Amino acid sequence: MLKVLHFIKRKPHLTHEQFRDHFERSHAAMALKFCGHLFSDYRRNYTPTVWTGGDSRDPDSGYSEREWEWDLISEWILPSEEALQEIYRIMQSPDIDELFHADEDRFIDRTATVTVHCDVRDVGTDFNPKGTVFDTPSGEPSWD
User: Could you tell me the domains of the chain?
Assistant: First the structure.
């Protein structure tokens, strides 16, 4: 499994809500129309704030809610590198490329975009101690 994360920031003339509404109505719709058949999953995570600035265990450390640079973390979950390359091929075809760029110019600060390719290690939600720090005769963790 492959995951591509896109950290995306709105243009300054838009509110976070206007950005989210436009992305859902236009940009996400285009991605699904042209490339949806290649995604295993496509998630859009909108957040205007994060918790940061200190040690969360220390109430006096300055750890608090703050605005942050990005408005969206978009996740493309893909079955393979081939699917990703096919998405790039489709999005670079002249008519589709022009359509995406025209839309992005309306609402995305392209200078702030960050793209991260992730090699996903999905362990699921069921705990299996084999190979972990809990794989000990007592079941207690050992970091040795």
Answer: 2-52+64-119 (3.30.70.100)
Contact 114, 7 (CB under 8 A): yes
Using CA atoms, how far residue 55 sits from 1, 62, 67, 102, in Å, is: 33, 8, 18, 42
The model carries a pTM of 0.82
65 backbone dihedrals φ, ψ, rounded to 5°: -75, 135
Per-residue pLDDT tens digits for 69-118: 999 999 999 999 999 999 999 999 999 999 999 999 999 999 999 999 99
